[in-house]
Amino acid sequence: MAVVRKATLDDVEQIYMLIDRYAQRGIMLPRSRELLSRVIDTFTVAEENGSVIGIGSLCVLGKELVEIRSLGIDEQYKGRGIGSRIVETLVQEAREMKMRQVMALTYEVKFFEKNGFRVVDKEIFPEKVWTDCVNCKKQHCCDEIAVLKTLD
Description:
This protein is α+β, with helices and mostly antiparallel strands. The chain has helices spanning about 10-25, 35-40, 80-95, 110-115, 125-130; strands spanning about 5, 45-50, 50-60, 65-75, 100-105, 120, 145-150. The chain has one domain: Aminopeptidase (3-Layer(aba) Sandwich), CATH 3.40.630. It contains 5 helices and 7 strands; from the N terminus they run E-H-H-E-E-E-H-E-H-E-H-E. It has a 7-stranded mixed beta sheet with strand order 1-2-3-4-5-7-6, sandwiched between helices.
């Protein structure tokens, strides 16, 4: 059974490798090892038998808005609820930070809907556009779908 926990610097290489597999398929932004080391405290991982098999991070975009990003599960572990457990952990972290909204840009709309998110127009997130989209090669032809969960 996978353990979901906060990431540590010891996890950087495995996080990097998982992100790189997604980035090579064009479905996740690449992240350098140096950047991952600097923002490791934003990551949550799922670990099984000493291996990182799932990842996700939380990025503050505004006073009341955070983004779930770099969410990915090792292919052989998909379908076991690990992604949902990571999302639950990140949403709980957002609540503890007193955030009102959690958003994500995704190709996996059904997954996020199953986890209580709804599809919204991505233009309602100018914070996201100026933080990451401005540097993305898909900036003018983005095919990701924005999803949002409003917290109590």
